[in-house]
Amino acid sequence: MHPEFERLRQACSVEARHACPNLQGQHARFADFARAEVARLLDQRFLAPAPVAALRAPLDRYETLPPADRARLVQDLLMALDPPRAPEPARPAPVGSTRPATAPAAPASKPAAKGPQGLDMGVQFVKGVGPRTGEMLAKLGILTVHDLLFHLPRTHLDYQARTRLRDVKPGDRVTIWGTVRRVETFVPPSRPNLTICSVLVHDGTAAAKATWFQGKMNKLRTDQFKQRFPVGAQVLLSGEARADGPRGGISFDRPDVEILGHDGEGQGESVHVGRIVPVYALTEGLPQRTLRQAVHTCLQTFGPLVEDFLPPVTLAALDLPTRPEALQGIHFPESMPERDRARDRLAFDELFLLQLGLAYRRAQQRDQAALAMSGTGALTQALREVLPFRLTGAQERVFTEIVQDLARPEPMNRLVQGDVGSGKTVVALLTLLVAVENGFQGALMAPTEILAEQHFRKFQEWLAPMGIPVASLLGKHGKRERAPVLAGVADGTIPLLVGTHALIQDSVSFHNLGLVVIDEQHRFGVKQRAQLRAKGLHPEVLTMTATPIPRTLALTLHGDLDVSVIDELPPGRKPIVTSWIGQRQRKDAWNLVRTELEKGHQAYVVFPLIESSEELERVRSATEEAETLAREVFFDWRVGLLHGQMDPVEKESIVQAFRRHELDILVSTTVIEVGVDVPNATVMVIENAERFGLSQLHQLRGRVGRGGDQAYCVLVTATQTEATRQRMEVMTATQDGFVIAEQDLRLRGPGEFLGTRQSGLPDFVLADITRDTALLEKARKLAWKVIEQDEGLQRHPALRAALFRHFRTNLGFLGVS
Ligand code: ADP
Ligand code: MG
């Protein structure tokens, strides 16, 4: 590039960096300056007229242009000043636009040294990073230039608006910046065990003293102290100012200090002082300054290699800065608003790349051959006649959506969300019957034995009058029981199979499996779902969950699923009367239980158990409490005890007994299995309710209120902390699973809300899905639009590269091996 162009180029890039506000420079606004410069360069023939001629007219109207046009114009100017040297490569289509693939986009002025390894070069290529620093960085997981550029600051300190010492008054909490004038250590004669260390600092307006009181120090330590504060060094002091002496002096007791270097240490100044300064996560032995300097140098050298995978048009529409600008702005912002915009851009990228991954994966799956099932309706109609109830409007609507999916020659990928008790099971069975009508087999997979068994029994009961066989495959089944089931499944005489993940084991082979329903899908890992596919089956998949996931989270985790919501409970359900009491009022709870039992109803009492190393200890004490309850409080009732150490057969027989009303009270030291359905149970007491998360409490409470009778839930807590109070208030105030889930997400954050970290998905560093809802929606829209136009991202190589880099630790997620 011609050196004469440098000033204009700089102005353009600064203007672009700030999203084209027509910045006020030192002497003129950007547009005025640019017009004058273009005129000068043309005049002096530095600039060939042709490329800029077309830009002059819009530049004259710069003030009146909308931001998108300004951005494009500035980019075009940059391009004219520094056209790409190499023969132009086929230009990728701008993201999210329908313009032809030749549209001019992409920033200009890339350094020529764009080696193929670029950002993947080792971090030791950053000037000033020696082997020792390199080792430290490796401990932080920083191996490459890219890693260092994306080691984002934890926070920033605003040293920009430093306070002048002259203006500091006693009591102010301030940060000042000055030069060390004198360092002293001193032992007061009256306190021989004390050493007072002080540093006198002057900032050009006034002086202040910083003081530390230490235990007795030997010569070595006092020397060390003095070495830390060489006279002439620049220091930052933060702390509360105190009056010192009668003449209005100021001092700081034990302030936070950062030593910034010496006067005249040119570069050091712009990195560490007088600006907004980034603060990074460190590792032992790596000073903040060293890391900060390394990032700064790295940005200067390699920052220009960072490509933006979104074109200016798109960014203008989203009102976001470019990726290189955002990187600069997140590390070394010139203002806090700039930093916030930078954060938004990078958070957007996290959300966008995840959505793009989901969309990409979905598109790959779409290419798989899929079945088209358009049922006759004969079996589903027959089932409706057998059912003791009519479907709710919501159940009908969701089933219709499913039927439409099944009729399409693409694999179904639908998630049914429905609050506890909303009646998902019957929708599952209807769906399975559509497969059977079409001559396929169907399978239902549930996360636990108890649940699988319960579904199996229900299916048997409903299907018996229709003469359709259904079998179950459970972990507890021995070889003898399995053999006929496996045979029937293999030869197709068993059309419907219910089970746990035993279903996807190697020994199970289907005659022609066409549909799989996964109940409580959040309890299955990504792995298990992949296992299904690995069996070489491409069945239609319907997933169901009773954990109502807030919309933002659903979009994040299931961006590639269609979602149906059963948002209506079967008629006649009365709200569950929920109350919250302390342990001393427990008697009231027992009285309520007794009243219900006397009406012929049943009750649950739940003792929580946290997974921990002391689990055995806890089992014992919770079990003891439960036994005491059975012996001393409810001795005249039939009480069953369920705990985690029981084997599955024993567990199942207790649940069975409760189901058949051979037990009045089910005391459980584990969480009662999700989905247990005993409509005659009308009251639940939850001990130590503070130990459960909101969503868990909601699930538990959903075990009662499943019939037509008034139901009750009593939450007994041992603590009264603020967190407990908040949760109990939510529980007593509402029964809407979505509201509860939103609150849960808000109170606990996404990681914990999901129980385990959602395996398989890259972590969010900046994005916060509880707050970045708007960004998420935009990211999702754009990602799906891009994939719609370019399934394999062939026309978006930069995006494709960014996507694969983002998912580099889990390419399997994208369907890439
Ligand atoms: P969940 O959505 O929690 O899995 P279930 O499918 O177990 O709920 O249904 C809860 C209870 O409601 C069951 O006893 C079921 O038979 C019953 N049920 C389902 N649909 C209806 C309906 N439309 N009318 C009345 N009762 C229904
Ligand atoms: Mg269920």
Description:
The protein has 817 residues and is an alpha/beta fold. It is built from 28 helices and 21 strands. Strands 11-12-10-13-14-9-15 form a 7-stranded parallel beta sheet, sandwiched between helices. Helix 22 links the parallel strand 18 and strand 19. Helix 1 packs antiparallel against helix 2, helix 2 runs antiparallel to helix 3 and helix 4 runs antiparallel to helix 10. About 5% of the residues have low confidence. The site of adenosine-5'-diphosphate has 19 residues, from helix 15.
Distance between the termini: 43 Å
**Number of alpha- plus pi-helical segments:** 28
> Roughly what fraction of the amino acids lie in strands?
15-25%
Helix content: 40-55%
Label the overall shape.
Answer: globular
Spatial sequence of strands, sheet with the most strands: 11-12-10-13-14-9-15
Unreliable stretches? 84-94, 96-116, 263-269, 755-759
Could you say which structural class the secondary elements and strand pairing correspond to? alpha/beta
Radius of gyration using CA atoms only: 34 Å
Outline the biggest β-sheet. 7 strands, parallel
**What ligands are attached or bound here?**
adenosine-5'-diphosphate, magnesium ion
Provide mean pLDDT, rounded: 82
Tally the beta strands: 21
